[in-house]
Amino acid sequence: MNPPFGTKLKGIDMVFLKKGIDLANHAVYSLHKTSTRDHILKKAKEWGVECEVVAELRYNLDKSYKFHKKQSLDIAVDFLRFEKKPRSE
């Protein structure tokens, strides 16, 4: 996923993530802004999946559109692992 994916269309990144989890056999890995960590962990709990912060990273986003004001921007991101909990028989 593109880290600022949910910034332009609020919440669409979570719809995308949920669908990925639904389709996955076991686990999904995703990048999200660190500032949204609490929200992401809350959603994972609501969805009944385990979520682990695998790494805290710095993502360098180079200027690629006219509306970008800076040449590049360093964004704190979490590399997350979402794991489906085994179903009880």
UniProtKB/TrEMBL annotation:
InterPro entries: rRNA_MeTrfase/Polyamine_Synth, SAM-dependent_MTases_sf. Coiled coil: none annotated. Keywords: Methyltransferase, Transferase. One of its GO terms (molecular function) is rRNA (adenine-N6-)-methyltransferase activity. This is Methyltransferase-like protein 5. The gene is METTL5_2.
